[in-house]
Write a structure and sequence with these properties.
Blueprint: H1 18-29, H2 32-35, H3 38-50, H4 54-83, H5 90-108, H6 110-119, H7 125-159, H8 168-185, H9 187-192, E1 193-197, E2 210-214, H10 222-256, H11 264-268, H12 270-277, H13 284-333, H14 343-371, H15 373-388, H16 390-405, H17 410-415, H18 417-431
Antiparallel strand pairs: 1-2
Helix pairs in contact: 1-14, 4-5, 4-6, 4-14, 4-15, 5-7, 5-8, 5-14, 7-8, 7-10, 7-13, 10-13, 13-14, 13-18, 14-15, 15-16
Length: 446
């Protein structure tokens, strides 16, 4: 997911401050053909606008790393879910949709953004000036709506498990609706984008100083401010606030309070249960009781791991999108940076904010690798295949299957959580009177 913006505003595959910076140099630059001969003028253009500066070489290296990690990592995420039926859960369907949006923006917009940030020129023509910004805004909308659906799904599953039952079919329908809504809502972005030259006198001589920017009809001061204010609220602030509230309640339920449908035994007496599980000569009823409670403990741990991973994904998303969102709001709505004195500082802030948003696409697969054991196993299997050959890959996959066959899938575990809970409560109540009060075979849980 990325946001590159022409002068700040809505996401587009452009230099976010190119017009500002060039306008800042327009007055001293004057009419180049009057002050320089052609050779000197071309050398000036190469030195000031085309040849990367020292810090821009670091930016180029950073973009290359982000491009490779984002592309390879998100493809691996999609392949892992596609090849393994036990990973086809509701949450993973949304994660795959998030990866598809990241792949789209990485392929279409990241290379163009790098070129524009370095050269301060749009080289890709009028048609792509409309297509690339539109695809990027669609990707941003898809990412935000997908993260919102994930938060909503987890909120229902953990805080209100009896109100709504999430299924794979509903998840797929939600994903289709997300793409349709994003494609329709972001159409204005494609309409207002046009190519223009900062120096009209040079338009017939060089493609340099061509920018792809918004051109509004009617009230040029009112419509952009309204559009970008709404864009900021709809695609960043409002979803982020709702997701934060949802995860705060999820955190409260999972770590601070009893989860609906679970017994107090699970959350209050962990060590006695573990000690009881190691006791000798247990009666069959006690064994059943401990197995049911142990399964319930496992459910809580799985839910905590999933919630922790999703919270980190949301946190990284909020951090990566914060700088460009603030810069866009300051520039488009409040008119800052139009006459910036420190051109290099403005340029550096916008280019870094562009890279940071693309880095979010590369960060998500890394988060899955460190916080999800199933994704980590699939990533290791994929890299083993590349590094050590097909046979080694087959062996790793075989070992991975044997280790995962003994465990239920996440979807099955979550759907059976209520059943296990009822079983544990029933067994616990029915066997309180049957267990002896004293003796080696007794289990003191309370």
């Amino acid at each position: 997911m990325s946001v590159t913006q022409a002068e700040g505003g809505s996401p587009s595959c452009l230099n976010g401050s190119s017009n500002t910076e060039l306008n800042g140099t327009q007055e001293p630059f004057g009419n180049p053909s009057a002050d320089y001969d052609e050779e000197e003028f071309l050398q000036f253009l190469w030195r000031e606008y085309l040849h990367p500066k020292e810090y821009e070489w670091v930016l180029i290296a950073g973009y290359i790393v982000v491009f490779l990690v984002a592309l390879i990592g998100n493809i691996l995420v999609c392949v892992a879910v596609w090849k393994n039926h036990h990973m086809r859960t509701v949450t993973n369907y949304f994660i795959v949709n998030l990866s598809l949006a990241d792949i789209l923006v990485t392929i279409t917009c990241l290379p163009a953004t790098l070129v524009v940030d370095i050269t301060e020129t749009w080289f890709f023509g009028d048609s792509l000036c409309k297509v690339f910004p539109y695809l990027q805004t669609v990707s941003v909308s898809v990412s935000v709506l997908t993260l919102s659906c994930i938060a909503l799904d987890r909120w229902y599953a953990i805080c209100h498990p009896l109100m709504f039952k999430s299924t794979a079919k509903r998840a797929r329908n939600s994903i289709i609706m997300i793409w349709i809504a994003s494609c329709i809502v972001m159409i204005p972005q494609a309409i207002v984008m046009e190519c223009s030259s900062v120096f009209p006198g040079l338009a017939n001589k060089t493609v340099l100083f061509t920018v792809c920017d918004e051109h509004w009809e009617g009230e040029p001061d009112v419509y952009p401010k309204m559009y970008h204010s709404c864009f900021f609220l709809i695609t960043y602030m409002a979803p982020l606030c709702l997701m934060v509230l949802a995860y705060l309640q999820i955190f409260q339920k999972l770590w601070c309070r009893q989860i609906p449908g679970t017994t107090s035994v699970v959350q209050r007496k962990w060590k006695p249960l573990q000690f009881a599980a190691q006791a000798r000569e247990l009666r069959p009823a006690a064994n059943l009781r401990i197995s049911a409670v142990a399964a319930e403990i496992k459910q809580i741990r799985i839910r905590r791991k999933t919630a922790r991973m999703l919270m980190v994904v949301l946190l990284v998303f909020a951090i990566c999108y914060l700088p460009i969102s603030i810069l866009n709001l300051l520039k488009r709505v409040f008119g800052m940076f139009n006459n910036a004195d420190d051109r290099e500082t403005v340029y550096a802030w916008f280019t870094f904010s562009h890279w940071l948003v693309y880095a979010n696409s590369a960060a998500n697969p890394i988060i899955y690798n460190f916080l999800s054991g199933k994704f980590r196993e699939e990533f290791k299997a994929a890299f083993s295949c590349c590094c050590f050959g097909i046979r080694h890959h087959h062996d790793e996959r075989h070992r991975g299957r044997t280790s995962t066959e003994s465990r239920k899938s996440l979807a099955t575990q979550l759907s059976n959580c209520d059943h296990v809970t009822k079983l544990s409560e029933h067994v616990a109540l029915s066997n309180i009177s049957t267990l002896p009060a004293n003796g080696t075979g007794s289990i003191h849980i309370w």
